[in-house]
Structures are given as C-alpha cells and as structure tokens.
Amino acid sequence: MSELLQLAEMSITRGLILNKEVYSTIAGFEGKFNKEEAKSKKLSEDLKVVSTEKVKLNLENGALRFKLDTLVAAKTDLKAKYEIKLKAATKNLKYQKGLSKLYRN
Description:
Elements: H1 2-104
C-alpha cells in the first residue's frame, strides 16, 4: 500500500508540475499575445493619426492647389484682358497714324 501511495503522490506532484508548466506556458503566450495586441493597437492608432494627417495635408494641398489655380486663372484672365486692350490701343494708334498721314498729304 505504501508504494501505491507513493506512486499516487508522485503522479499528483508530477501532474501539478506539468499543470504549472502548461499554465505558465499558456500565461506566457497570453502575455505575448497581449503585448502583440497592444503593439497592433498602437500601430493602428499611429496609422490612424498618420492617415488623418495625410488627409489634412491632402486637403491643405488641395486648397493651396485650388488657390494657385485660381491665381493662375486670374493672371491669365488679366493677361488676356490687357492683351486685348493693348491690341485695341495699337490698332487705334495705327489708325491715328494712318489718319495723320492722310491729313498731312
């Protein structure tokens, strides 16, 4: 009987040791998983921040491009208006020169 009790005791202690090892291994995996999960959450938060910053930058760039396009359009519009006025003025000048030549002769 005493041998049986010893065997039973040994198997119980072995079982407990095994259970402890399994538990610590599981706990270690959980710890690693939690760390990885925390890293991935941090990464996703960082990516959200980066993406929102990119969106802000894109909006700002879009607004700047729009302003630049508007300025270029306004500049070309003004240039076209002045070219028309300049052409009209040169035609008028040529006309006046033509008239002065006519009156001189």
